[in-house]
Design brief:
The protein is an alpha/beta fold. The chain has eight helices and six strands; from the N terminus they run E-H-H-H-E-H-E-H-E-H-H-E-E-H. The structure holds farnesyl diphosphate.
Length: 248
């Protein structure tokens, strides 16, 4: 039996874990500046903590972890920074895929893969195909992802089905809509974490975060580790979720 490297602290109730955690990994640029390093090294530092975070989510029994790796807006950064991020995506999958697969993690890419350079598209597609039958943690990585574009795409997919006579407009309900999102079949986001103290959604999982609890830790992303994750989960558990109703 494998042991959990970072067990849950007593303030976290293992019976009330968020089923789906989404993370906006913000602050790599500021971390690099603070440490007098190039921004690419900030992003690299921001992949080094990922392994433990993913492993812990898998160990403690979180069902889904969604990471915002590259937004559709990130193409507007300098060519050097875009290239560095693209390289990190390749490096991450090359170094982690064996262990992720062994841990029964299923990888899902959210976003438009057709807009990515060939090597990245290939590595992401291979990771998805290789882990498609895994039944453990669903590790969802948003790459070339935009929340509005995802909603527009869902509307187009449904419109095509109506046009071809497969469904009527009246048959489109929330479940049908959610079924056309990249996250189809996953639980809704329970906990959204954005590091570095910024308090924005930045076009991330607009539909899926409808009833998410938002937690904004001050740490810059490379300084965010498993103890900070557990603190966010404890904060999530301290909130009272009413979904528009009233507390009993
Ligand atoms: C935001 O920090 C972070 C990003 C735009 C990229 C996040 C990507 C990674 C951590 C690495 C790739 C991930 C995977 C899964 C392989 P920022 O640069 O906007 O920070 P700043 O606001 O301090 O400038």
């Amino acid at each position: 039996m494998s042991t959990i490297k970072y067990p849950l602290p007593p303030e976290v109730d293992p019976a009330r874990l968020p089923r789906h955690i989404a993370v906006i990994m913000d602050g790599n640029g500021r971390w690099a500046k603070k440490n007098k390093l190039k921004v690419a090294l900030g992003h690299r530092a921001g992949t080094e903590n990922l392994r433990e975070i993913i492993r812990n989510c898998s160990d403690i029994g979180v069902e889904a972890l969604t990471l915002y790796a590259f937004s559709t807006e990130n193409w507007n950064r300098s060519q050097t920074e875009v290239e560095a991020l693209m390289q990190l995506i390749l490096d991450f999958f090359h170094s982690e895929i064996d262990e992720l697969d062994q841990k029964n993690v299923r990888i899902l890419i959210l976003g438009d893969k057709s807009g990515l350079p060939g090597p990245q598209r290939q590595v992401l597609e291979q990771a998805e195909a290789r882990t498609a039958a895994n039944t453990g943690l669903s590790l969802n990585i948003a790459v070339n992802y935009g929340g509005r574009a995802e909603l527009v795409r869902a509307a187009q997919l449904l419109a095509r089905e109506v046009q071809s006579g497969l469904r009527t407009p009246e048959s489109i309900d929330e479940a049908a809509f959610a079924g056309k999102l990249y996250t189809a079949g996953l639980p809704e986001v329970d906990l959204l974490i954005r590091t570095s103290g910024e308090m924005r959604l930045s076009n991330f999982l607009l539909y899926q975060c409808s009833y998410a609890e938002f937690v904004f830790p001050e740490e810059l992303w490379p300084d965010f580790h498993v103890p900070q994750l557990h603190r966010c989960i404890a904060e999530f558990q301290s909130r009272s979720r009413r979904y528009g109703g009233r507390e009993e």
